[in-house]
Design a protein that fits this description.
The complex is a heterodimer of chains A (110) and B (113). Chain A has 110 residues and is mainly β. Chain A has no helices and eleven strands. Chain A has strands at 4-5, 11-14, 19-25, 32-38, 45-50, 54-58, 61-66, 71-76, 85-92, 98-100, 104-109. In chain A, a hairpin with a 2-residue loop joins strand 6 and strand 7 (61-66). The chains are: A mainly beta (110), B mainly beta (113). Chains A and B meet through strand 5 and strand 9 of A and strand 5 and strand 10 of B.
Chain lengths: 110, 113
């Protein structure tokens, strides 16, 4: 089983701050990397995907990928209380399976 | 365009009962998936169907069966429910396996007494 590791949290940040969520993966053949957000009692929804090394920005969200270090992160700028959720890192391995981390709980405090 | 739909939303079963969870997608996706999500365990793949007419086991297939009825529909069957199958079940679809993004249905919360 390919491993995708996340700190379970909770990660607590004040409103307006930058939240930094991290993920490491074990399969060096991994090609695609996703961040999903899951509110309590709801299904995962895609926030961002990234395929190439470097940064990818979408509004307040930035995904960062470093394949050499097998590390992917999600930055949320100007965090809002509505960003409070569990963030799931998912990695498509060399066998096309999408492996999920257990998620990091984020709490944005007013 | 409803995306991925699942029925039922909630279900309570007694040990030994059987039931089928239904999933349908209207995005013309080829691949469909069934996951279970348990506290502290994350999302785990039960079965998947890479394309119409094919099904394969995932990480935790024991106690389940699936049917890819057509391109739109993928059902999950519990033949003899056990308390260990108490979980939230999510169906997902993807244009092509491993090539795109998976989109999730709203989930079915199942309790087995």
């Amino acid at each position: 089983q390919k491993e995708v590791e996340q700190n379970s949290g909770p990660l607590s940040v004040p409103e307006g701050a930058i939240a930094s969520l991290n993920c490491t993966y074990s399969d060096r053949g991994s090609q695609s990397f996703f961040w999903y957000r899951q509110y309590s009692g709801k299904s995962p929804e895609l926030i961002m995907f990234i395929y190439s090394n470097g940064d990818k920005e979408d509004g307040r969200f930035t995904a960062q990928l470093n394949k050499a270090s097998q590390y992917v992160s999600l930055l949320i700028r100007d965090s809002q209380p509505s960003d409070s959720a569990t963030y799931l890192c998912a990695v498509t391995g060399s066998g096309y399976a999408l492996n999920f981390g257990k998620g990091t709980s984020l709490l944005v405090t007013p | 365009n409803a995306g991925v739909t699942q029925t039922p939303k909630f279900q309570v079963l007694k040990t030994g009962q059987s039931m089928t969870l239904q999933c349908a997608q209207d995005m013309n996706h080829n691949s469909m998936y069934w996951y279970r999500q348990d506290p502290g365990m994350g999302l785990r793949l039960i079965y998947y169907s890479a394309s119409e007419g094919t099904t394969d086991k995932g990480e935790v297939p024991n106690g389940y069966n699936v049917s890819r009825l057509n391109k739109r529909e993928f059902s999950l069957r519990l033949e003899s429910a056990a308390p260990s199958q108490t979980s939230v079940y999510f169906c997902a679809s993807e244009l092509d396996r491993g090539q795109d993004t998976q989109y999730f249905g709203p989930g079915t919360r199942l309790t087995v007494l």
